[in-house]
Amino acid sequence: MALADATRMEDCASNMRVSPCVVRTDNGILRHMKKIGFDNEKYVQMQSEKIRERISRFGDKLYLEFGGKLFDDYHAARVLPGFLPDSKINMLQTLKDDAEIILAIYAGDIEHNKVRNDLDISYDAEILRLIDAFREKGLLVGGVVITRYGGQLAADVFAERLRQLGIRVYLHYPIAGYPANVPLIVSDEGFGKNDYIETTRPLVVVTAPGPGSGKLAVCLSQLYHEHKHGVKAGYAKFETFPIWNLPLQHPVNLAYEAATTDLDDVNMIDPFHLEAYGVTTVNYNRDVESFPVLNAIFERIAGTSPYRSPTDMGVNMAGYCIFDDDAVCAAARQEIIRRYYTALCGCKRGTLPADQEIRSEYILNRCGATPADRPVIAHALEKAEETGEPAMAIQLPDDRIVTGKTSDLLGASASALLNALKMLGGIHDAIDLISPIVIEPIQHLKTRHLGSQNPRLHSDEILIALSICAATNPTAALALRQLDKLRGAEAHSSVILSRVDSDMYRKLGINFTCEPQYQSKNLYHK
């Protein structure tokens, strides 16, 4: 009995907005591989040099506000093919003898148990995860700042937990009229009330679990205190997107807008930079809007501002490391399509407001992309139409497409996963990788003892079953060895995936999208 749906091999390079290069496989078949367009090695070198230059510009100390993700920056890896997800943390490692890390977390986020959606963990748990990760990389963690602290009980509990773990904790307080009330902000009743963070290295990286944590205010507060202590300190900002020296409507910058629709970020020309230098650069609305106040704070602290524009504050070298703009543009358009489907599903679930769908569609139209540019969508919908059941399509990194259907034994995502491993391993579709003898006891366990109403195996369960079979079945072992080759694959489901399936696809490095439809008409969906 075949567990998998018949596979489908198709060369879809002609249907994709992807810059392909032709390679020859071991069996002589020509395949199209997505080209890289970003020089990661050059990026790490240039970025390190730029930060060192900025440190020397200020003398004693530089506070570097680090936006975005220091670890696992898969958005950057997707829109800048060739960028490695841990490039930024690897770059920091080249500066580790001069650097220390300060983490900021907003007290209100602790109180309301705010969650980082991509990891499904709370912000306070993410602080602990980040500290562990920094230490594993040999980086010094100087402490944690709880920002806008107003006596929240949850913040007190978290602070005490950190202290018991041997981590220094600092409290920063709300300032009435921030950021407009500059005289109060830059005074003993403003920044002066905040705890002074004692740092020991010339580069202080201020980062956070997510946006709105108060990184900029922490940096400015430290500048105020350092000035009072007679220390020459400066501020700079490291945020990968938008890339300041790419055009405003460049797909990479549009992909940033698509990724931050929930933050109301909009890319715009930096008017201050244009006026000061006659050069057109790109920044985003929040930095442009806050720059006059930020400049006033700099002048109030040190007597003069070192910057003439928001762009001046940045140290981002990513734009100089793009060597194939066509490849980067194609990758960014694919990301915009993925973000559009993420918004559709978020609105369907009720986790995003309806305007997110409208904003995402607007960005999709601006970059000239359509769902037809993502081949797996049509293949998944065609299979669903053919079978009358949920279906999944996976496009392998070499552009071959395989589909999976829903059966009595497997969900569509598990079926497509098995079919993809077969194709990658050159295993004939008629060969069963997993015997029903293995599957049936798992189904019995799920339905009889674990309370599941769905007997079909999910992606994680099918991989565990495959691992068991691999101990005695060489063909199953061959299929299992193909898992790493799935990283970078594209997938589309005709229905919203369950959390367990979406988590597994994410862990395997498969970029997936879903139709904004549930498999059932139930009101409650896991």
**Helical percentage:** 40-55%
Secondary structure tally: strands? 16
By DSSP (H or I, 4+ residues per run), the number of helices equals 20
The whole-number mean of residue pLDDT values reads 89
The poorly predicted ranges are 1-32
The description of the largest β-sheet is:
6 strands, parallel
Strand content: 5-15%
Overall shape: it is globular
- Give the termini distance in whole angstroms: 30 Å
Structural class: alpha/beta
Radius of gyration, rounded? 25 Å
Side by side, the strands of the main sheet go 8-7-4-9-3-10
Keywords, please?
20 helices; globular; 43% helix; four-stranded mixed sheet; single chain; disordered N terminus; six-stranded parallel sheet; 526 residues; alpha/beta
Q: What is the strand and helix layout of this fold?
A:
Elements (H helix, E strand, L loop, with lengths): L19 E5 L5 E5 L5 H19 L2 E6 L7 H6 L7 H7 L5 E8 H5 L3 E2 L4 E2 H14 L3 E8 L5 H12 L4 E3 L10 H4 L17 E5 L7 H14 L4 E6 L12 H9 L7 E3 L1 H7 L4 E3 H18 L7 H4 L11 H25 L5 H12 L8 H13 L3 E5 L5 E5 L6 H14 L10 H14 L9 H12 L3 H7 L9 E4 L5 H9 L3 E4 L12
Helix pairs in contact: 1-3, 8-11, 9-13, 9-14, 13-14, 16-18, 18-19
Your description of this structure?
- Helices cover 43% and strands 14% of the residues.
- The protein has helices at residues 40-58, 74-79, 87-93, 107-111, 123-136, 153-164, 182-185, 215-228, 251-259, 271-277, 285-302, 310-313, 325-349, 355-366, 375-387, 412-425, 436-449, 459-470, 474-480, 499-507, and strands at 20-24, 30-34, 61-66, 99-106, 115-116, 121-122, 140-147, 169-171, 203-207, 233-238, 267-269, 282-284, 391-395, 401-405, 490-493, 511-514.
- A hairpin with a 5-residue loop joins strand 1 (20-24) and strand 2.
- The longest helix is centred in the middle third of the chain and has 25 residues, at 325-349.
- It is globular, with a radius of gyration of 25 Å.
